[in-house]
Design a protein that fits this description.
about 260 residues; alpha/beta; 6-stranded mixed beta sheet; 4-stranded mixed beta sheet; 12 helices; 10 strands
Protein backbone atom coordinates (compact mmCIF):
# COMPACT_ATOMS: atom_id res chain seq x y z
CA UNK A 1 0.00 0.00 0.00
CA UNK A 2 1.41 3.38 -0.97
CA UNK A 3 0.83 6.31 1.35
CA UNK A 4 0.42 9.76 -0.18
CA UNK A 5 2.66 12.32 1.47
CA UNK A 6 3.53 15.90 0.76
CA UNK A 7 7.11 16.57 -0.24
CA UNK A 8 8.64 19.41 1.67
CA UNK A 9 11.39 20.40 4.05
CA UNK A 10 12.21 18.10 6.92
CA UNK A 11 10.92 19.67 10.17
CA UNK A 12 13.68 20.49 12.64
CA UNK A 13 13.68 19.01 16.17
CA UNK A 14 11.44 21.03 18.45
CA UNK A 15 11.68 21.26 22.23
CA UNK A 16 8.30 21.60 23.95
CA UNK A 17 8.82 21.85 27.66
CA UNK A 18 11.18 18.96 28.35
CA UNK A 19 10.03 16.85 25.36
CA UNK A 20 12.11 16.92 22.18
CA UNK A 21 9.96 16.21 19.10
CA UNK A 22 11.95 14.59 16.30
CA UNK A 23 10.58 13.89 12.81
CA UNK A 24 11.58 10.65 11.07
CA UNK A 25 12.11 11.56 7.40
CA UNK A 26 14.72 12.55 4.85
CA UNK A 27 16.01 16.11 4.69
CA UNK A 28 13.92 16.77 1.58
CA UNK A 29 10.71 15.68 3.26
CA UNK A 30 10.34 12.12 1.96
CA UNK A 31 9.03 9.47 4.38
CA UNK A 32 12.24 7.42 4.06
CA UNK A 33 15.63 7.33 5.78
CA UNK A 34 18.72 7.95 3.68
CA UNK A 35 22.31 8.38 4.88
CA UNK A 36 21.86 12.06 5.70
CA UNK A 37 18.72 11.26 7.69
CA UNK A 38 20.52 8.58 9.70
CA UNK A 39 23.34 11.02 10.40
CA UNK A 40 20.92 13.77 11.37
CA UNK A 41 18.96 11.50 13.72
CA UNK A 42 22.14 10.17 15.34
CA UNK A 43 23.42 13.71 15.86
CA UNK A 44 20.10 14.75 17.39
CA UNK A 45 20.14 11.82 19.81
CA UNK A 46 23.77 12.43 20.75
CA UNK A 47 22.97 16.05 21.58
CA UNK A 48 19.75 15.15 23.40
CA UNK A 49 21.58 12.65 25.60
CA UNK A 50 23.78 15.45 26.97
CA UNK A 51 21.08 18.14 27.18
CA UNK A 52 19.54 18.38 30.65
CA UNK A 53 16.56 20.28 29.22
CA UNK A 54 15.60 17.16 27.23
CA UNK A 55 13.99 14.55 29.45
CA UNK A 56 11.97 12.66 26.83
CA UNK A 57 12.25 12.25 23.04
CA UNK A 58 9.10 11.89 20.94
CA UNK A 59 9.47 10.44 17.43
CA UNK A 60 6.87 11.31 14.83
CA UNK A 61 6.43 10.81 11.10
CA UNK A 62 5.07 12.99 8.35
CA UNK A 63 1.36 13.59 7.87
CA UNK A 64 -0.37 10.27 7.17
CA UNK A 65 2.79 8.16 7.36
CA UNK A 66 5.38 7.31 9.98
CA UNK A 67 8.22 6.02 7.76
CA UNK A 68 8.41 3.75 4.69
CA UNK A 69 11.92 2.47 5.41
CA UNK A 70 15.34 2.98 3.90
CA UNK A 71 16.18 4.68 0.62
CA UNK A 72 16.45 1.88 -1.96
CA UNK A 73 18.65 3.97 -4.26
CA UNK A 74 21.42 3.82 -1.66
CA UNK A 75 21.09 0.04 -1.34
CA UNK A 76 21.67 -0.28 -5.08
CA UNK A 77 24.70 2.04 -5.26
CA UNK A 78 27.79 0.22 -3.94
CA UNK A 79 29.74 3.48 -3.80
CA UNK A 80 27.40 4.66 -1.04
CA UNK A 81 27.47 1.52 1.09
CA UNK A 82 30.44 2.35 3.32
CA UNK A 83 29.12 5.74 4.49
CA UNK A 84 25.57 4.38 4.71
CA UNK A 85 26.61 1.46 6.93
CA UNK A 86 28.60 3.79 9.19
CA UNK A 87 25.62 6.14 9.56
CA UNK A 88 23.16 3.31 10.22
CA UNK A 89 25.46 1.72 12.80
CA UNK A 90 25.94 5.01 14.63
CA UNK A 91 22.19 5.64 14.86
CA UNK A 92 21.30 2.12 15.96
CA UNK A 93 24.02 2.08 18.63
CA UNK A 94 22.81 5.47 19.84
CA UNK A 95 19.24 4.19 20.08
CA UNK A 96 20.36 1.09 21.96
CA UNK A 97 22.32 3.09 24.54
CA UNK A 98 20.21 6.27 24.74
CA UNK A 99 19.68 7.00 28.46
CA UNK A 100 16.30 8.78 28.32
CA UNK A 101 12.76 7.65 27.49
CA UNK A 102 11.80 7.51 23.81
CA UNK A 103 8.16 7.63 22.76
CA UNK A 104 6.77 7.29 19.24
CA UNK A 105 3.51 8.50 17.73
CA UNK A 106 2.53 6.50 14.65
CA UNK A 107 -0.31 7.63 12.41
CA UNK A 108 -0.03 5.59 9.21
CA UNK A 109 2.48 3.10 7.80
CA UNK A 110 5.68 2.04 9.59
CA UNK A 111 7.75 -0.13 7.24
CA UNK A 112 11.24 -1.65 7.42
CA UNK A 113 13.58 0.53 9.46
CA UNK A 114 10.58 2.79 10.00
CA UNK A 115 9.21 -0.08 12.08
CA UNK A 116 12.38 -1.52 13.65
CA UNK A 117 13.22 1.88 15.13
CA UNK A 118 10.03 1.50 17.17
CA UNK A 119 11.48 -1.45 19.07
CA UNK A 120 13.84 0.98 20.79
CA UNK A 121 10.94 3.11 21.98
CA UNK A 122 9.62 2.78 25.50
CA UNK A 123 6.06 3.46 24.34
CA UNK A 124 4.48 3.44 20.88
CA UNK A 125 1.19 5.30 20.56
CA UNK A 126 -0.67 4.70 17.31
CA UNK A 127 -3.87 5.52 15.51
CA UNK A 128 -6.21 2.73 14.51
CA UNK A 129 -5.28 3.11 10.83
CA UNK A 130 -1.57 2.48 11.46
CA UNK A 131 0.16 -0.56 9.97
CA UNK A 132 3.49 -2.21 10.74
CA UNK A 133 5.59 -4.32 8.35
CA UNK A 134 9.19 -5.55 8.14
CA UNK A 135 9.71 -7.12 4.68
CA UNK A 136 13.46 -7.74 5.07
CA UNK A 137 13.32 -11.45 4.25
CA UNK A 138 11.22 -10.73 1.15
CA UNK A 139 13.98 -8.37 0.01
CA UNK A 140 16.71 -10.96 0.68
CA UNK A 141 17.92 -9.03 3.75
CA UNK A 142 18.03 -9.58 7.52
CA UNK A 143 16.49 -7.54 10.36
CA UNK A 144 18.34 -4.51 11.70
CA UNK A 145 18.56 -2.36 14.85
CA UNK A 146 19.05 -5.41 17.12
CA UNK A 147 15.46 -6.46 16.46
CA UNK A 148 16.60 -10.08 16.21
CA UNK A 149 16.86 -9.73 20.01
CA UNK A 150 14.26 -7.07 20.74
CA UNK A 151 11.43 -8.56 18.66
CA UNK A 152 11.35 -11.97 20.40
CA UNK A 153 11.56 -10.17 23.75
CA UNK A 154 8.62 -7.93 22.96
CA UNK A 155 6.47 -10.10 20.68
CA UNK A 156 7.46 -13.58 21.83
CA UNK A 157 9.30 -15.96 19.49
CA UNK A 158 6.20 -17.03 17.56
CA UNK A 159 5.06 -13.43 17.07
CA UNK A 160 8.53 -12.33 16.00
CA UNK A 161 8.84 -15.26 13.56
CA UNK A 162 5.49 -14.44 11.98
CA UNK A 163 6.30 -10.75 11.76
CA UNK A 164 9.84 -11.03 10.35
CA UNK A 165 9.94 -14.35 8.50
CA UNK A 166 6.44 -14.33 7.00
CA UNK A 167 6.50 -10.56 6.57
CA UNK A 168 2.91 -10.20 7.77
CA UNK A 169 1.47 -6.71 7.98
CA UNK A 170 0.16 -5.95 11.45
CA UNK A 171 -2.74 -3.62 12.03
CA UNK A 172 -2.77 -1.45 15.11
CA UNK A 173 -4.89 -3.87 17.15
CA UNK A 174 -2.66 -6.85 16.32
CA UNK A 175 0.43 -4.77 17.09
CA UNK A 176 -1.03 -3.85 20.46
CA UNK A 177 -2.00 -7.43 21.23
CA UNK A 178 1.59 -8.54 20.53
CA UNK A 179 3.11 -5.73 22.58
CA UNK A 180 4.62 -3.49 19.91
CA UNK A 181 1.99 -0.76 20.41
CA UNK A 182 1.16 0.46 23.91
CA UNK A 183 -1.91 2.59 23.18
CA UNK A 184 -4.32 3.17 20.29
CA UNK A 185 -5.91 6.61 20.04
CA UNK A 186 -8.13 8.41 17.58
CA UNK A 187 -6.69 9.43 14.23
CA UNK A 188 -5.36 12.97 14.39
CA UNK A 189 -4.72 12.91 18.14
CA UNK A 190 -1.66 10.64 18.19
CA UNK A 191 0.96 13.34 18.66
CA UNK A 192 -1.12 15.03 21.33
CA UNK A 193 -1.44 11.72 23.20
CA UNK A 194 2.30 11.04 22.96
CA UNK A 195 3.11 14.53 24.24
CA UNK A 196 0.74 14.04 27.16
CA UNK A 197 2.64 10.88 28.12
CA UNK A 198 5.93 12.74 27.62
CA UNK A 199 4.81 15.47 29.99
CA UNK A 200 3.90 12.84 32.58
CA UNK A 201 7.37 11.33 32.34
CA UNK A 202 9.09 14.73 32.40
CA UNK A 203 7.50 15.47 35.79
CA UNK A 204 9.01 12.38 37.39
CA UNK A 205 12.17 12.61 39.53
CA UNK A 206 14.84 12.50 36.84
CA UNK A 207 17.41 10.25 38.50
CA UNK A 208 14.84 7.69 39.62
CA UNK A 209 13.23 7.60 36.17
CA UNK A 210 16.50 7.14 34.30
CA UNK A 211 17.81 4.56 36.78
CA UNK A 212 14.58 2.57 36.61
CA UNK A 213 14.58 2.67 32.82
CA UNK A 214 18.21 1.55 32.78
CA UNK A 215 17.41 -1.41 35.02
CA UNK A 216 14.48 -2.40 32.79
CA UNK A 217 16.61 -2.15 29.63
CA UNK A 218 19.43 -4.30 31.00
CA UNK A 219 22.77 -4.83 29.27
CA UNK A 220 22.82 -2.64 26.17
CA UNK A 221 26.23 -4.02 25.20
CA UNK A 222 24.48 -7.19 24.02
CA UNK A 223 22.28 -5.08 21.74
CA UNK A 224 25.29 -3.26 20.29
CA UNK A 225 27.04 -6.56 19.54
CA UNK A 226 23.92 -7.82 17.77
CA UNK A 227 23.63 -4.56 15.80
CA UNK A 228 27.16 -5.10 14.49
CA UNK A 229 26.33 -8.73 13.54
CA UNK A 230 23.12 -7.74 11.77
CA UNK A 231 24.84 -4.91 9.90
CA UNK A 232 27.57 -7.31 8.73
CA UNK A 233 24.98 -9.76 7.36
CA UNK A 234 23.00 -6.87 5.82
CA UNK A 235 26.14 -5.61 4.07
CA UNK A 236 26.93 -9.10 2.76
CA UNK A 237 23.41 -9.37 1.36
CA UNK A 238 23.85 -6.09 -0.52
CA UNK A 239 26.82 -7.68 -2.32
CA UNK A 240 24.78 -10.66 -3.50
CA UNK A 241 23.72 -10.49 -7.16
CA UNK A 242 20.39 -12.24 -6.57
CA UNK A 243 19.50 -9.84 -3.76
CA UNK A 244 20.49 -6.84 -5.85
CA UNK A 245 18.31 -7.97 -8.75
CA UNK A 246 15.41 -8.45 -6.34
CA UNK A 247 15.91 -4.97 -4.89
CA UNK A 248 16.16 -3.46 -8.37
CA UNK A 249 12.86 -5.10 -9.34
CA UNK A 250 11.16 -3.86 -6.17
CA UNK A 251 12.55 -0.36 -6.74
CA UNK A 252 11.12 -0.30 -10.28
CA UNK A 253 7.69 -1.41 -9.03
CA UNK A 254 7.73 1.27 -6.33
CA UNK A 255 8.74 4.04 -8.75
Amino acid sequence: MRTETTMGIHPQPELRGHALIVTVSSDDGRPVLDRRAYESLARTFHEAADDDDVRVVVLRGLAGCFCLGGDFSEFLDATKHQRLIAAVTDLFRMLATFPKPILACVDGDAVGVGCTILFHCDMVIASGKSTFRVPFVDFGLVPDAATSILAPQKLGYAGAFRFFCLGDTLGAEDARALGLVAEIVAEGSVEEAALARARQLAKKPVAALLQTRGLLKGDTGVLCDRIDREISLFQQALQDDTTLRRLQRIARLAA
